[in-house]
Amino acid sequence: MLDTLITLVSFVFFTALVGAVTWWLTRKDDHGSSAGYFLAGRTLTGGYIAGSLMLTNLSTEQLVGLNGAAFNDGICVMAWEVIAAVSLVIMALFFLPRYLKSGIATVPEFLEDRHGDSTRAITSLIFIVAYAGILLPIILYTGAKGLTEILDIRGILGIGPLVIPADAPPEYLDFAGKAIIWGAVWLIGIIGSIYAIFGGLRTVAVSDTLNGFGLLVGGFLIVFYGLNAVSDEGIFKAVEIMQTENPEKFNSLGSSTSSVPFTTLFSGVLLLNLFYWCTNQQIIQRTFGASSLKEGQRGVLMAGALKVFAPLILVVPGLIAFNLYGDEIAGDAAYGKLVQAVLPTWLVGFFAAVIVGAILSSFNSALNSTATLFSLGVYKQMLHPDASEKRVIASGKVFGTILALVSMTMAPLLIGQKSIFGYLQKMNGLYFIPIFAVVLVGMLSKRAPKIAADIALIFGFVGISIFYFVIQPMSEDQSWDLNGDFYNYHFLGLMFLTLVGFQLVMAKAAPRETSYEQKDSGQVDMTSWPLAWPMGLGLIVIVLSIYIYFANPSVIWPLVPPRPLIDPANPDSVEQVRNVVLTYVRSVC
């Protein structure tokens, strides 16, 4: 009983502390104008941008989902984190200068400037539908799941441990478990809505930074205590034991059956990362609020540097949990189980508060971004062009409230989903790929016409939906089964090339009448950060070094023989490699 009380007191104290400090720092902010409410008055410095980028990303779909993926597939899932560093470099050096030059508040605004009203409208609607139906419910569900496991809500309520029937999957929940998830979803949703709807972007950014510090401290403490649970002879001995007992979990290249096959790093995985960090409104909105290009680049690249080390708290705990529990638990339960088992009682409450902060960060960031898209892209642009600033902001608050209620209702419907992180990445492809293809061509080509962008957006969204919801279900149990991450990500890569190619062909066959020339809005100081290029190149070198260090090419494909691939002393090795290549080509084709 005393342990439970200590946990709850530390949880409430830290949660209240963050809320109080955030209110104090933002109490005099401008919430009466669009720039003040949606862009923090363009006053964000590099530190706030980096902290907000990190914590918006490091939510429970990452902590629970990615550690669960590491539990199942090993260190290869770090691709989602370290490849993100490369994407952030591209964001800082290529995309951000073009965004800030236009003085925009949303990605659809850029597309309106590049193509026209219809492109902005289509993009805004795709973003809104995707955030409402995919992102927000997943954030709430994973947050509720992680929080209830870390705080052991069943134990606090005296319900008793979950008993899984012999014929039930590991994701099974009884009635009490489902009721707890519903309650946690609504609690998190209500608190997050208050932050986002009544505070605006600066409130989001400040609370993100405070919670981000706590998340980093707590995350590293879990790794420290977890490794000591593996071995009482020190953390290095623990790592050695883990590598010895489960060497297959420590290969950065993975295998064709893992959730991140190595070849997909050059197709769907890379593209999803590029969209997420370069064109995803939920993430990059805080960069639009940068006080200057210099501060924006510094914040983005600082976030890139942190992403290189993110696997320590987003992948390693999953590996530790696998070593401790093996197949006794489901992957998505690994993180909560580990936290509850290894952290001291008083730290459990602290870390639960940090988890709530991470959940609120992602939820209120997505909610704020969706309200921004609706207010500026639908309400102001399409419904009431003459609306005052006050009415525009009010429309965002009303829409945000409705959206929050819808998301809180939808989130518990995800109960029983086998792999939340895999589900999230798959669903993200629906809108990530078409929007990224249109934004990229819009920046690279001056002659691509509006009709090409509009068709690419609609065809991409519909085409990927047909593949996911029609073709893949039809192919189950067939010789040409197209289910699985390998095919998902390569299909996204193929669709991206198709959409880009179509727009470039249209730029030649039916170009716009005049070449597009981007105008400088003059709203942001466009002086670059002198260290942007050196730091960007340094991050890319570090990413390559990490992959090389953990690489074992012998398991990229199940039929590939151990190193060396061709053994001069064995004449049959050449024929073996030839057969492997032919098998790979046939499987892909």
Commentary on this structure:
With about 600 residues, the chain is mainly alpha-helical. The chain has two domains: about 550 residues, Up-down Bundle (Sodium/glucose cotransporter); about 30 residues. Helices cover about 70% and strands about 0% of the residues. It contains 23 helices and no strands. Helix 7 packs across helix 16 and helix 9 packs across helix 10. The chain starts with a helix and ends with a helix. The relative contact order is 0.18. This is Solute:sodium symporter family transporter. InterPro entries: Na/Glc_symporter_sf, Na/solute_symporter.
Q: Which architecture name of the largest domain does CATH use?
A: Up-down Bundle
Q: Give the percentage of residues in beta strands.
A: under 5%
Unreliable stretches, pLDDT < 50, 5 or more residues?
A: 30-39, 556-568, 583-589
Structural class: mainly alpha
Structural Rg:
24 Å
Q: What's the tally of helices?
A: 23
Question: How far do the termini sit from each other?
Answer: 61 Å
Could you give the order of the helices and strands? HHHHHHHHHHHHHHHHHHHHHHH
Classify the fold: give the CATH topology of the largest domain.
Sodium/glucose cotransporter
Q: State mean pLDDT (0 to 100 scale).
A: 80
Strand tally is 0
